[in-house]
Design goal:
Length: 151
């Protein structure tokens, strides 16, 4: 039986809640990654930030309400994309990260971890021990494990 500890990446890229989003974007590009786990100064899991979180933050639009002749119209915010990106990159990670993180422990089977990914439509699962990050299992890790064990 293959367990999470057998396939997890232990060299996990971590960031802190106060780190600017711009620094995280640069880190993603430098390391060729699409996510980082957010931990506090004591190493306790706080969240996860992914390329999807960054895309959602860029796309986030505030509606503009217009009251015209006693009728309310909702218009889309069409503010300049460059201005949104500039604002986003200076914001702290804690403002855009996913806080409700689906985790597993080192003893979870590959099937359990794959089930979490499928059920919650996520691409990676942080592996924890006593609320501390010990690794990360990505979809790629599961596919590699299947390939290694295919006759």
């Amino acid at each position: 039986m293959i367990l999470a500890r057998d396939i997890m990446t232990t060299d996990v890229v971590v960031v802190h809640p106060e780190d600017p989003v711009g620094d995280v974007v640069k880190l993603f590009l430098e390391k060729g990654i699409t996510c980082a786990v957010v931990v506090d100064q004591k190493g306790k899991l706080q969240g996860i930030v992914t390329d999807g979180d960054i895309m959602a933050a860029i796309r986030q639009r505030r509606p503009v309400y217009v009251d015209l002749f006693n009728s309310v119209f909702v218009l889309e915010d069409t503010s300049d994309l460059n201005a949104k990106i500039k604002t986003l990159t200076s914001r702290p990670v804690k403002e855009i990260m996913t806080r409700k993180v689906i985790t597993a422990n080192e003893e979870a089977t590959i099937a359990e971890v794959a089930g979490l990914m499928t059920d919650h439509r996520i691409k990676q699962v942080p592996i924890t021990s006593q609320d501390r990050l010990v690794g990360l299992v990505r979809r790629h890790d599961i596919v590699q494990a299947v390939a290694r064990n295919t006759p």
